[in-house]
């Protein structure tokens, strides 16, 4: 019997604030970061599971400690028990009564659980010799529903209804896998739209995005209406009438401001407004949606758990949602959210970017296409061409489409040298004086 022998965390930070990459209305100086976790085993093959929470700098101070606090439920457990029943493993972590007090099922502890659950999934898919999307997409409907915690969901989605959704997507799975392998999954890009960029940089990057085959681009908005109107008009002029143009306010507004602002931007044919207001405010999203129809409203990347998604759907508050691979409680809870979205007929347009989020969430979108919603209609995974070189199995986006990952695992594993160089505060990129470099760490 092989055991999980250690849970090791690493504070990995990239100094992205130096170039304003990733700047938006609420996050003017992000240092894209990963609170990174490795589950080690005594398996003779060297089997490990890698996972992380994405933060934007100082969040790592707290997040790495939260991940460490889960070690007592992970270290010393048989590998076979963990990867043989990942539904039970995820529920063990969310049910720890002392840590649950800090949530429940939201915030720093829940994100830490997500990282550890995702690391266990990475381990399971590596053990199976399959990329995660294929590992899950080839499970039976019964195996997939067993992954989901239906607690708090049954007024909107029962286990039987979820089974029905999965069974009705079973015919055609093989055709969709073949199509995914040959054509990939649609992507959209946010690269032209960061708030800190000049108009010239915006125009050049928007033009390049269309030339690269992207059918949707997205701009950050929300700081200054006059500037946003100018940037949206410029982007629409550059990309022409056929490329979709979305905007993202990153939670900047109250309801009245959102409505007034979007009425000004609506004439440029907006594909959706993302995160107009607080991610916790279901009724505000519903009010904004009613007021600015037919402009579609979306949220989700900061949505803390499946219960919030359920309410957004029940209240007709959104036209589409972003899922995030590293915000909720891991693969299991995202499958619950994908099933809820399928039940309510809401499109899923996954959030990515940051560091490693594209690598992770592509697998979830592909699981949705093969085994849950069975469709690509109106769907695209966010893409930002940034920091992928730090991963051993980086995303591959060709002509505006994600290629399906082929390597075993969750594409979560960072290169050892990248972890060493970006360790905070002792790594090479953070230390001007080589004499101050931290001791080499075991990776
Ligand atoms: Mg966003």
Automatic annotation (TrEMBL):
Superkingdom, natural source: Bacteria
EC assignment: 4.2.1.68
Cofactor section: Mg(2+)
GO biological process terms held by the UniProt record: amino acid catabolic process; carbohydrate catabolic process
One of the record's GO molecular function terms: magnesium ion binding
Domain Mandelate racemase/muconate lactonizing enzyme C-terminal: 199-295
Catalytic activity of the protein: L-fuconate = 2-dehydro-3-deoxy-L-fuconate + H2O
Keyword line: Lyase, Magnesium, Metal-binding
Alphabetical list of InterPro entries matching this protein: Enolase-like_C_sf (IPR036849), Enolase-like_N (IPR029017), Enolase_C-like (IPR029065), L-fuconate_dehydratase (IPR034610), Mandel_Rmase/mucon_lact_enz_CS (IPR018110), Mandelate_racemase_C (IPR013342), Mandelate_racemase_N_dom (IPR013341), RHMD-like (IPR046945)
Coiled coil: none
Pfam families: MR_MLE_C, MR_MLE_N
Protein name per Swiss-Prot or TrEMBL: L-fuconate dehydratase
């Amino acid at each position: 019997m092989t055991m999980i022998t250690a849970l090791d965390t690493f504070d990995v930070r990239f100094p992205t604030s130096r170039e304003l990459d990733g700047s938006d209305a609420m996050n003017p100086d992000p240092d894209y970061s990963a609170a990174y976790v490795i589950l080690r085993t005594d398996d003779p093959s060297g089997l490990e599971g890698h996972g992380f929470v994405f933060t934007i700098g100082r969040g790592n101070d707290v997040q790495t400690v939260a991940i460490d606090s889960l070690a007592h439920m992970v270290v010393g457990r048989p590998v076979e028990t963990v990867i043989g029943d990942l539904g039970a493993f995820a529920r063990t972590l969310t049910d720890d009564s002392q840590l649950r007090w800090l949530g429940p099922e939201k915030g720093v502890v829940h994100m830490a659980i997500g990282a550890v659950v995702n690391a266990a999934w990475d381990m399971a898919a590596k053990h199976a010799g399959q990329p995660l999307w294929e590992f899950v997409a080839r499970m039976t409907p019964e195996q997939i529903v067993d992954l989901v915690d239906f607690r708090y969901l049954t007024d909107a989605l029962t286990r039987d209804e979820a089974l029905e959704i999965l069974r009705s997507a079973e015919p055609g799975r093989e055709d969709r896998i073949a199509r995914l392998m040959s054509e990939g999954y649609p992507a959209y890009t946010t690269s032209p739209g960061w708030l800190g960029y000049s108009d010239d940089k915006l125009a050049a990057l928007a033009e390049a995005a269309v030339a690269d085959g992207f059918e949707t681009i997205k701009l950050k908005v929300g700081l200054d209406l006059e500037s946003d109107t100018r940037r949206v008009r410029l982007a629409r002029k550059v990309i022409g009438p056929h490329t979709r143009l979305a905007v993202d306010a990153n939670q900047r507004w109250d309801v009245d401001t959102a409505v007034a602002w979007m009425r000004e931007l609506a004439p440029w044919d907006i594909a959706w407004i993302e995160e107009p207001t607080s991610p916790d405010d279901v009724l505000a999203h519903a009010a904004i949606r009613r007021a600015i129809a037919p402009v579609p409203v979306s949220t989700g990347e900061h949505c803390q758990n499946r219960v919030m998604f359920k309410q957004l759907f029940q209240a007709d508050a959104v036209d589409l949602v972003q899922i995030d691979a590293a915000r909720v409680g891991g693969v299991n809870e995202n499958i619950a959210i994908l099933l809820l979205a399928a039940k309510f007929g809401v499109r899923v347009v996954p959030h990515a970017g940051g560091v490693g989020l594209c690598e992770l969430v592509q697998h979830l979108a592909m699981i949705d296409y093969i085994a849950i919603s069975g469709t690509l209609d109106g769907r695209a995974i966010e893409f930002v061409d940034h920091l992928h070189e730090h991963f051993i199995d980086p995303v591959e986006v060709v002509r505006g489409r994600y290629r399906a990952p082929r390597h075993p695992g969750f594409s979560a594993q960072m290169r050892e040298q990248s972890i060493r160089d970006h360790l905070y505060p002792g790594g090479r990129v953070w230390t001007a004086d080589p004499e101050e470099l931290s001791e080499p760490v075991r990776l």
